[in-house]
Amino acid sequence: MENKNQYLFTSEVVSPGHPDKCADIIADSIVDKLIIEDSNSRVASEVFVAGKNVVIGGEVKSNYHLSDEGYEKLVKDALAKIGYDGKSSFTKEQCLHPDDVNVKVLLNQQSPDINQGVDQESGEIGAGDQGIMFGFASTETADLMPAAITYARMLCDKVYNYALNHKHKLGVDIKTQVTVDYGTKENFENCKPQKIHTIVVSAPSVDGMPIEEVRELIQGLIDDTGLPTSMYDKDNTIIHINPTGRYVSHSSLHDSGVTGRKLIVDSFGGYAPIGGGAQSSKDYTKVDRSGLYAGRWIAKQIVAAGLAKKAVVQISYAIGVARPTSVSVDTMGTYTSVNDDELSKFVMENYPLTPRWITEKFGLDKPSEETFLYADVASRGQVGQSDYPWERLDEVEKFKNIK
């Protein structure tokens, strides 16, 4: 008899063309520009995208001056790279065109009260804010990420890249969602996904393209994504493609966007806790950003070393104080030879986790085309991409040798 047991978990992903992601990418394009020109730049800029308007607010401190015209060019270049370049077959009423964009810059200087605690006379960097961050890793996929968000990202990337290269058919404001069936709660707890249960893809199509043609096109992209054959069976997966039957109008003309609204998309798909703040729009001294990267890196070493099937690492900071106020490891009962108390102690004793240590470890003050760009990180997700510096498995042997 067929096993009817189910235990389902779902994650969603949005493409760079989603208005919230547009805001994140613009904000991190600012971070890239200022840090590349002056590595000591301090940036905390927020972006609001609504209709044809882009509003940039927040605080910066940099020896590099970017004029309002410079910010406007940066915004339009970012939107064009995302896919809003005016070359699609969508009208100016259906999606955003760069020629129509109005940019308003409302940036202030960073408070000296914050700065005196961050840039310390000793050369140490104090945390740019208080807060909590969580890193996570799991044996569910090769990249040590949860299965649902990994497969949702694969689908989103596939459809988005097709849209970029077929502007006469699809737009770039795309959402995907994957539900994974673990069969039982025990399998869920032990990182044993069984199959993809449901797939949802919503992608804008040009006016006049029949929904049957849209669904056939996107179904072909789903089948060609490279989802594991052990997990994806087209004939036994529930698939919803543009389920309302029409999706033409899109972009910020029809849904506003704000930095920091896609924290779960950017991290672990809801599988693990998230910290109290966003990453995009902030320089490397802001521990909302650097603390996530450090926590993810530690969690990956633990899981890759075979010390647990999954691990959550929490780090907390006080503003202006370099060392974390706390570090803890929770393997959710999946540890092997070293328990959570011992793992937490090992991390605290061997890794300073100060903003300067994290910055130097991952080169966070040196974004470039050759290493990484924050705008690219905003586009692809803050964690889980193997080419990011904080995804390197470079201390696994040290973790394996914990006594």
Q: How is this structure best described in words?
A:
The protein is of the alpha+beta class. The chain has three domains: 110 residues, 2-Layer Sandwich (GMP Synthetase, Chain A, domain 3), CATH 3.30.300.10; 93 residues, GMP Synthetase, Chain A, domain 3 (2-Layer Sandwich); 148 residues, GMP Synthetase, Chain A, domain 3, CATH 3.30.300.10. Strands 1-6-7-8 form a four-stranded mixed sheet, with helices on one face. The protein is flat and about 65 Å long. It starts with 7 loop residues before the first strand and ends with a helix.
How would you sum up the global shape?
Answer: flat
Identify the strand order in the major beta sheet.
Answer: 1-6-7-8
Head-to-tail CA distance between termini: 47 Å
CATH-defined topology of the largest domain: GMP Synthetase, Chain A, domain 3
Give the rounded overall mean pLDDT: 94
Strand tally is: 11
Share of helix, binned: 25-40%
**How many helical stretches?**
12
